[in-house]
Amino acid sequence: MYGLSRDDCERLDREDPLGTLRGRFELPSGLIYLDGNSLGALPVGARQRLDELVRVQWGEDLIRSWNRHDWIGMPRRIGAKIARLIGARDDEVIAADSTSINLFKLLAAALRLRPRRRIIVSERTNFPTDLYIIEGLIELLGQGHELRLVHADELSDALDEKVAVLVMTQVDYRSGRLHDLAALTRQAQAKGVLTLWDLSHSAGAMPIELNAAGVDMAVGCGYKYLNGGPGAPAYLFIARRHLRDAQPTIAGWMGHAAPFTFAPDYRPAAGIERHLVGTPPVLGLAALEVGVDLLLEADLQLVREKSRRLGDLYLRLLDQECAAFGFEHACPHDSTRRGSQVAVRHPQGYAIIQALIVEGVIGDFRAPDILRFGLAPLYLRYVDIWDAVAALHRVMASQAWNKPEFKRKATVT
Amino acid sequence: MYGLSRDDCERLDREDPLGTLRGRFELPSGLIYLDGNSLGALPVGARQRLDELVRVQWGEDLIRSWNRHDWIGMPRRIGAKIARLIGARDDEVIAADSTSINLFKLLAAALRLRPRRRIIVSERTNFPTDLYIIEGLIELLGQGHELRLVHADELSDALDEKVAVLVMTQVDYRSGRLHDLAALTRQAQAKGVLTLWDLSHSAGAMPIELNAAGVDMAVGCGYKYLNGGPGAPAYLFIARRHLRDAQPTIAGWMGHAAPFTFAPDYRPAAGIERHLVGTPPVLGLAALEVGVDLLLEADLQLVREKSRRLGDLYLRLLDQECAAFGFEHACPHDSTRRGSQVAVRHPQGYAIIQALIVEGVIGDFRAPDILRFGLAPLYLRYVDIWDAVAALHRVMASQAWNKPEFKRKATVT
């Protein structure tokens, strides 16, 4: 078998049409960061933007900045930019709150649009917080809704006329499996089922065409592939055809038709703004905007292509260099069915991830035995994949993972 | 009548035990800022804290910062600090989300603690978003709850055995009226009514003793007297006796007993953490912590005393200098019944506020005719009050407010 060399990877980097984007991030030297699907890297420009925001806008202009620097317009303005990343119109997206809270808001709104249906369908291995939110809302409402959890391959059978909403995450957070958003949405619509997609693990790493697919609602995260900073505000999408009828779930003043009249009665804003709740988190939104602006410079088709190649490269090098060490692929082989991450299984997964950190490679572990490596195409090089697999080889060949301090304990990674 | 002079105010400043705190804020020169009850000023140290956070914690340590810099502990750590400002225990408060969302979460939790009662009582002139949230939740639940709005003086009559929750803001956002938190809480408890207080316009400007008063729940804002920055995260309080039974309203992963096991089933954390929802907004929390730390250096009794004096001074100087111009006091005269703001009425209120801005004095306007001046005792001087009233005199004597560009239009101030 022809073996790939590090030189081959360097050549791929030289030919990479996205190669210059790496310089737009402040990356620590000596580190290979394969966790951009948990927290995206720091864009050059974010520091300056935040410092100007704090020093001038907060410090000097104070309350006047709501108008002078259009703080008040941030949720809509940044939402409109995110819309371009996910195939939405600029009046269909706002940046606000957290993904979990947005999911809660939209799911409740969706259920009110289907008052005679009582079933919510989702995938058994959906991101846990999405399942918690669904179950929590069902309990809160006490209206006899029911969550029907099925395996991914049984989804289309699970959709019938009793189902109100299908709640799906486009890319599985562990296996990296990429669901067919268009096909599932079409199947749901054929039964009158509303679709609510969580784009947290896909948006920013691939083109998404929500409107072309006829998606009804979506939410997503600001701090993964959007590089919006730790705990960045999230976003939500509602298709234009639902904007008039989708009621706000949490009726806060920022969703009022005229927030600054301080009227005693709530009158929802005409458009997507009605799903705003409290005062916008200005610091977080400013950092998010820098990340989104940077992403808008990239051609998402090229981003996707590179993402697939990085994943293919990782799996091929793993087979080439680490065949002796008992890894199993835990993600789809076919890159068209895989998100921007690879996952492999190993019984010592936790310890191996810890030992890799010592080697300067950051991935993460997901119980019980998954090593997960995020492949952020904007700032990763092909040679980083080579070096990451070489580090994995070192860790395995030397048994560097087999140390007491790498024993698994409850932790945050 | 003995008239106060600017010299008298300078003397008060020299004797002010809190006088040195002003230097701990970065205040724009030439500006008198009487809007700290809308957006608090920038603490010295916030810029550096954020820059270090962005550069080192986000940029270099990346995902490792959740442990290395205890991002994961921020909601509890900052909550525990806020607890010291409001007479709570450190396990009763978290910093999270927005005030409106926290109110939604706690009100729903409170209603579930009183399943047989259907009435929510609040004050007719409560902050509008609080009323919107209540009405929105009632509609969402569809369980026949009812909002009973009464005048502040009729509150105790409105509390009976059918009432589940009393929702109150401690200081009225327009008039500055300070409600008797202890007395109202006592009256509510005598009828088995839970109390949910919004401290947004009081915390940080006066001592608050939630536990001494027996308050059940509270929420508050991070960006007013806490000086946490624009759109700072808010906080919530639940008395320890309710922690076991108060269910999380929005069941997100950060409220899970073990968030990082990614278990498919939701199991609420034992304590106050179960009311967390999504990933903590790290940038906003860091800025908030700087503001809270600064406030913790001040003796809140002295803060309250100065706040009352600043208000008394403003009203006295207004009467002394501006008697000819038709202002009416719109806030309580008795400083023990007034929050840290004054309010006066004038038919040309909007234009006057605009003209004052040109004179370097920032207050704000609340329809239909209220001029509202916030008095943040940490960074305002007595002489600022003198200069603010002198500016008001100039605006009125010269009719500087009477210009076409100061005509009222929909705006954000």
TrEMBL record, chains A, B:
GO MF annotation list: kynureninase activity; pyridoxal phosphate binding
Membrane-traversing stretches: none
Keyword Hydrolase part of the UniProt annotation: yes
Any Pfam family matching the protein: KYNU_C
Catalytic reaction list: L-kynurenine + H2O = anthranilate + L-alanine + H(+); 3-hydroxy-L-kynurenine + H2O = 3-hydroxyanthranilate + L-alanine + H(+)
Enzyme class: hydrolase
Hydrolase among keywords: yes
Known role: Catalyzes the cleavage of L-kynurenine (L-Kyn) and L-3-hydroxykynurenine (L-3OHKyn) into anthranilic acid (AA) and 3-hydroxyanthranilic acid (3-OHAA), respectively.
Complexes and interactors: Homodimer.
Matching NCBIfam families: kynureninase
PANTHER family: KYNURENINASE
Name listed for the protein in its UniProt record: Kynureninase
